[in-house]
Amino acid sequence: MKIIGIDIGGANTKLASADGEIIELHYIPLWKDTTLPTSLRDIAEELKPDKVSVVMTGELADCFEDKDKGIDFIMRSVNDAFDCEVKYIDNSGRFHEDSGRPA
């Protein structure tokens, strides 16, 4: 089973597999006509993970009207890209389903 962790920041998206075999850094600046949705689809197609866990700080990038708009954009991009179980980790370390909303 391939489990991938993704950290989506304002400029860089980092990912790593649970087994340590995959460690990648992708420069995807959210404020510059972002390629995040396409890049995540490419990553999903290449890696074909069974599960994905996501943390984010990119929702605070100044290209978003507010934090909620940033969260919505990032979650939609992730959910559209991956055809597997997706969970989000909030700032307290709790997991949330992709149909839910991180606090």
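(the above was protein one; protein two follows)
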Amino acid sequence: MTNNLDTLATALYARIDDELKASSWLAPWRPAIGISPTLSDAELITLAVMSALLGYTSERRWLRRGGRDFGHLFPYVPQQSGYNKRLRAAFSLLTSMIRIVARDTSLWSDDVWLVDSTPVGCGCSRETVKHSDLAGWAQYGYCASHSRYFWGLRLHLVCTLGGLLVLFALTGAKADERETLRDMLDTVPDVLAAHPGQTIIGDKNYFGREFERGLAERHLKLLRPARKGEAEPTGSHLFKSLRQVIESINQTFKGQLNLERHGGKSPAGVSARVLCRILALTAAIWHNDQTGQPIKRSLTAYGH
């Protein structure tokens, strides 16, 4: 099997289509009697993933190119308004396919997870803050890694050392990272049951006796750098290199997948665009794993 964008798109479409046939409840709701969409749900999600992998931030520009250059894959490409409406309605399908595709990889069984959060900016002016539909969810926050303030959201990630996302959450910029991690873990008890004795590596923000006790009750072991006044934990010299892994994953989202240029103007729009980028990275890792590529997180073969 070759390793290029067309092959990935074909394999992903087949995987989604098979899953929808086996679990029809995953598909977005539509009336039992009515006109069937010309573009299937599997084609819609595949089209959105290709857009993310190719770095498009404008849906109109992407749909023009999709109809021109990818007609052999998509005989019908909708207009921007219909595409956007259907993509927002496919929130549940996107979320489910991220988990389903991730489970199909060899990286899913890794016994070490990395946890971190990264800013998702949603506006750069005071007028945007006052009039945006995201007001109330998006907040002012501070990014210590880049020493900057921003207005928007935070994407919280739990991933393997190979970059595969296991858990994720999109919250306001001021959401507590520890509480968000606990909520993510409690939402998916089946994932925890499948990973007993998991080790989680985080930064200095993941601290506190009560927090660590809660992780221990969930049979999870937390490793983090020492805070001021604490003794250095065993193996602390490894944290710096492992922190580079999570920073590299964040940069993949920000650089190659244009996470901060998502263009969403509403909660549903932002959620759909962020989920498409998460599925794009997950699908690339899945396809690289299936084709025996040495670097599972590489997007090089799919960026053109």
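Reviewer note on protein two: The longest strand covers residues 148-160.
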